[in-house]
Amino acid sequence: MGGERHEPPPDGFEAELDQIAELNRLETPPPAPQDGRGSRQAGEGVPPGEAVRRRDALLLSAGHTLAESDSLDEALRLVAGLYAPDFTMDAQYVFAIGDGSLTALAQYGFRPGGVVDEGFRMPLTTGYPAAEVARTGRAVFLASTQEYRAAFPATWHMSARKGLNAWAFLPLVNAGRVVGVWLAAFRSPVAFTKSERALLTVTGRMIAQVLERARAGKAELALSRGLRQSMRAAGPALTGLSVATRYVPTGGGLMVGGDWYDSIDLPNGRLALVIGDVQGHDVHAAGLMAQLRTAVHAYAAEGHGPDAVLARASRFLTTLDEDRFATCLYIEADPSTGNLHIARAGHPHPVLRMPDGTCLLKHVSGGLPLGLMPGEEDYPVDVLRLHDDEVLMLCTDGLIENGGHDMYSGWVRVRDAFSPGPVEDLEGMADRLMSAVLSPEPGAREGVARDGDDIALLLLRRDSVKPRAEVNQRRLVLTIGQDHGEGLAEARAELKALLYDWARPDQVDTAVLLATELLGNVLVHTDQDGSLTAYITGETGRRRLLVEVMDRGDELPHQRTPVELASSGRGLLLLDILADQWGVRPEPEGKTAWFALTEAAPGEAGGGASV
C-alpha cells in the first residue's frame, strides 16, 4: 500500500532486477495525453452526491457490458471506455497466477495491438506490486511516483520511465482464491478516493469473471450460455399479475450457477412461480439445476399441487446426485383472486411489500431441502392473499448474504432498497435491489475483492385491473350435506349427464369414480359439507374436464405411498393413476381437491397416470 516500505528479499535482489528488466522489455510507453490534459485528481470539483450517482451508473454500465464477455482483450478495451473523462485509465495489464509465478495474459495501452509475451513469467517473490497482491490478496494503490518509489524501490523507476504517475493493482478473486492480478495505470496522478477505490474493486471482480470464463472449457461455456438464455425467456403474461426477474452469476466464473427461477402457465388460468438454488457454484451444479428446473416445470405443467411438485422434484434430484441438495420455493398464483398457494423446501422466506412501501418478511411453513432426506418429502402448503398493488419478492440467499452479510443485516439492506419508489415501476424495483447488493458499501474494506454467491430475483405484483374471464361451455355446481344420504348418487348422475356426449365412455366412468372418491372423503373424514364444481371447456373431441371438490376442513392431505393395510392415503394414489392432472390447494377457508381429464378419441390414450 502507499506509504509502506516493502523491502525485497536481499538474496534475490539481482534476480528481481532481471525480472524487472524483462517486464520493462515487454512494455512500451502508452500514448501521450492530449494537449491541455495535465495533472488531475479523479473526481475533482464533482459534488459528492453526483460522484456517487456517477459511480453507480458506471457500475451498472460495466456489469451489463462485461456480463457476456469471455475475452480479456475485449474486456480491457471495454473497461478503458467505461470510466469518466476525469478518471480515465491509460493502460492495463492482467496477470495470471500459477506455479508460484505471474504470467502475462492480456494488456491494453502498453504495447500496440494488445500483444503480450505468453512466455513471460515472474516469481511471486519479486518485489513488484502485482507479485505482492498475488501473495497477500490485498490491493495496492500508488497515487504518485513518490509513493511507488517509497513502497517498491526496486521497480518504481521502470514505471516512471513509461510516463505513468498512478497505479492500482487489484486481486482477481474466484471462489475465495486469488487467481490473477489486474493493473490499472494512469498517466496523471490520481487521489484514489474511497469511491474510486470501490469502483476499481468492483471492476476487478468483473474482470475476474471474464478471466475465469476465458479459462473455462468450451463445453462449460456453451452449457452456461444455454441455461442463462433459457432463464431470459419471458414468462406467460396473465392479466392481473406482473413479474420482473433478475439473475447475476457473481461467483464461480460461469455465466450461470445453481440458482434459477421460472414462471409456468398452469391449468385454469393460474400461474406457477418457482425459485431455487442447487448446492454449489460449479458446472456440475449448473447441470443439475438445468435438469431440476426442467423437472419442476414438467410436474407443474401436469397440474400437480405445490406439495406434490416439490415431493416429486426431491425424489427426482435424489436419482441424479445423492451428494447434492437444493432449496426451492414454489407458488401457485390465481390472478383472479390474488390467492397464492406456497410450498417451501428449505428456501429463504418471501418478502411482502405493501402499497405504502412497508416490507414484511412472510414466514412460510416448509420442509427439508430437495434431495436431502429421501422418503421424508413432506411440504405443507400455506395460503397468502396478494392484494392490489402489493409485491411479493422471491430471492436466493445470494441477494441477502452477498458481501459478507448475515441474514439479519442482509435483510435490512434489502428492505431499504425494496421499500422506496412507485409500485408501478417493477423493473425499477429490481434494478434498485441489484444495485444495492452489488455496489460497494460504506465502511467496506478497500481494495479487497469480495467473492459472492449467485443471485436470482423474482418480483410478483398484483395489478389493479379486472382479471380475464374464463370461458366455460358447461358448468355444474352442487353441494352434498352430511345428512343427505342420496347426495353421492345424485352427484354421480348429474356428472354423467354433464358428460353425455364425451368421446370416451371409459373416461366418463373415470370421472364419476374420481368425483365420488373426492366427495366420499369429505363426507367420511370430515364433518363438513362437500361442494363440487365441474367445468367443460374447449372444442368437441379435445375438450377438458375440470372437477373441483371443496370443503371447509383445515387438514390438508399429502401424497404418500400407503402400506398394504393402511386405512387412508389411497384416494390421492387413485387420482395419480387415473387423472391426467390433479392437485390439492388450500383456500382461505378450507381446501379444494381437483382433477382434470382431457377428452381423447376412441382408441387414443387418455386419462393415464403421469410420472
Automatic annotation (TrEMBL):
GO terms for molecular function: ATP binding; kinase activity; metal ion binding; protein serine/threonine phosphatase activity. It catalyses: O-phospho-L-seryl-[protein] + H2O = L-seryl-[protein] + phosphate. Its EC number is 3.1.3.16. Residues 238-462 form the PPM-type phosphatase domain. Keywords: ATP-binding, Hydrolase, Kinase, Magnesium, Manganese, Metal-binding, Nucleotide-binding, Phosphoprotein, Protein phosphatase, Transferase. Transmembrane segments: none annotated. SMART domains: PP2C_SIG. It comes from the Bacteria. Residues 1-50 are annotated as: Disordered. InterPro entries: Bact_Sigma-Reg, GAF, GAF-like_dom_sf, HATPase_C_sf, PPM-type-like_dom_sf, PPM-type_phosphatase-like_dom. Signal peptide: none annotated. Primarily acts as an independent SigF regulator that is sensitive to the osmosensory signal, mediating the cross talk of PknD with the SigF regulon. Possesses both phosphatase and kinase activities. The kinase domain functions as a classic anti-sigma factor-like kinase to phosphorylate the anti-anti-sigma factor domain at the canonical regulatory site, and the phosphatase domain antagonizes this activity. This is protein-serine/threonine phosphatase.
